[in-house]
Specification:
CATH class of the largest domain: Mainly Beta
CATH topology of the largest domain: N-terminal domain of TfIIb
Shape: elongated
Strand content: 15-25%
Strand order of the largest sheet: 1-2-3-4-5-6
Distance between the termini: 41 Å
Number of domains: 2
Helix content: 25-40%
Largest sheet: 6 strands, antiparallel
Radius of gyration: 23 Å
């Protein structure tokens, strides 16, 4: 029994090769899960887990276990974990740079400017061979006072 959590999805339980989606929390720290593939059918397969052990298993599955899908979920989770670290996205550096350039007032009061500044961390997802072009394209669309902020992230 293993768990996987991908940012935009509910917590999932992987048990005997099947994937179950968290439904609700029950008494005594027990959590109810339903089979991911049976989610939209009238035939529900449920697993109740408490801590790191299965408490009960209701109904039998009518489909074969998907051997690769759980592995894909683990890979997705690991990629997200690595890509979304504050160091990679400069999430802590961005407010400091805005403040050091004296643009905090504009950042707080100008929604368009805020949106443009918030695009800078997204450049972390650009493939390395296209990074320079992406920075230059973004810089062309930004107001001139944002140039030092873009230059800082371009250089780091």
């Amino acid at each position: 029994m293993e768990f996987v959590q991908i940012e935009w999805c509910k917590r999932k339980l992987i048990y005997v090769g099947y994937i179950y989606v968290k439904q609700k929390e029950l008494a005594n720290s027990v959590i109810s899960y339903e089979c991911e593939k049976c989610w939209y059918s009238s035939f529900k397969v449920k697993v109740k887990a408490g801590g790191n052990e299965v408490v009960s298993h209701e109904n039998n599955l009518t489909h074969a276990a998907d051997i690769l899908h759980p592995e894909v979920l683990f890979v997705q989770q690991e990629i997200r974990r690595k890509l979304l670290t504050p160091k990679r996205l400069h999430s802590k550096s961005l407010p400091k740079q805005v403040q050091s350039e004296g643009l905090q007032g504009k950042y707080q009061n100008d929604a368009n400017f805020t949106q443009q500044i918030c695009m800078i961390p997204a450049l972390a997802f650009i493939p390395p061979d296209k990074e320079i072009d992406a920075y230059e394209t973004l810089q062309e669309t930004m107001p001139p006072e944002a140039d030092p902020i873009i230059d800082y992230f371009k250089d780091t």
